[in-house]
Amino acid sequence: MRSLAAGAALAAIAAGWSGAALAQETVTVWFTKGFYKGEDDALLAVVDKFQKATGVKVDLSLYATEDCVTKSVGAVQAGTPPDVGFCTTYDFRTTGQWAFEGKLEDVTDVLEPIKAQLQPQALATTFLMNDKTKKKAYYAFPVQQQMMHITYWKDMLEEAGFKESDIPKGWDGYWDFWCDKVQGAARAKGKRIYAVGHPLGVAASDTFYSFLTFANAHNAKIVDEDGKIVLDQPANKAAMVKAVKDYANISQRGCTPPSSVNWLDPDNNVAFHNRTTILTHNATISIAAKHLDDMNNQALTQEQRDQAKKNYYDNIRTAEFPNKPDGSPMTNLAAVKTAVVFADGKNKKRGKEFMAFMMKDENLRPFVEGSVGRWFPTTVEAAKAEFWTGADPHRKIVHKQYTDGTVPFQFVYNYKFTTVNAENVWAKAVNRVLVDKVSPEQAVDEMIARIKQIAG
Description:
By secondary structure, this protein is an alpha/beta fold. 48% of the residues lie in helices and 14% in strands. The strands form three sheets. Strands 1, 2, 3, 6, 11, 12 and 13 form a seven-stranded mixed β-sheet that branches. The chain has a four-stranded mixed β-sheet with strand order 8-9-7-10. Strands 4-5 form a two-stranded antiparallel ribbon. A hairpin with a 4-residue loop joins strand 4 and strand 5 (135-138). It is found in: Periplasm.
């Protein structure tokens, strides 16, 4: 009787789902542990609701970011994956490859009925090629997304003698303003600071995300929608040379700390929080969100909480990138964080049901908003929520960036670019210019040759 009741409850929630759950039936789910407690609390609430609605036990495991993907890769290789996986670096490293190799379950039957509820650009990144079937289908769930933002200290800008209205909108003028005018004025006051925290480390994902933003600004097309490499076409190669020159130049003119050539992902955040840099570019608004978190942290003193509040609302700004060098507005490079159902999962049918339940707006929205702005939603309605469109000075800028338009990473069209990014051919090219003193043209020639070796 309990089994029949559970089946009826599930049918009421999602028409077309399978029937009654058997006693003690379990679905195994692996997720990245949230950066904020609110993310984990929201996920646990979804798990509780799903268990009560279906009678199916959810065996949930939460892992640190790197452990999550490493453990998942090992389990897939061993043929013992969970039913559902959601690691926040799957998109960068594994989703496309798993889809190509036939390691993922086709979830088209789940996503097609809710297609209109999802942002088209986000959904498109989960439409992937399966080499076994020789066709594309939906092989992942677009859970949340991120993009690159500018973050700067407004009070440090003012201490240097400038107003926000002084900041140019054009590409070259923007970087000249920060590197020449602001840094120079700040140092004239005796402060050994740098205008830009500019990731250059080969081991940092921040570097390839930041560099590809510069490449995008110069309209350097790398692959077409069929995954064919087009970077060697003259116009694209010339644009990439300009991007390498631009990216290297910020370091060459002494505008970023010398140590940035060795930075790992946290280091631009640390330099910013230490106020040794005035501006940085970062793939989430986690820098500002740290101060939002601190101002509500009862473990801190009242003075520390007050300062964190002042930082969040008054001192720190989230901003868009300047216009492209051709004068057009920046179209932002978005990374969609993907959940998958594994083809070798022991209970993949229930795995699909769990993700269908998770993707409902009333369940997904609290999970995404639990990150206090670190991740942006993939559903149409959640993007319209006051959480994003209201008075918050940082989240409303993020909303505007997404509204202005996004483009996907190259690995959406050619999964081998996950290896290209992991090897960070982009950072290597820039460092060839900075460290080995080769010309940008030679660095780009080497870059293209290596990309063709990996992804051609």
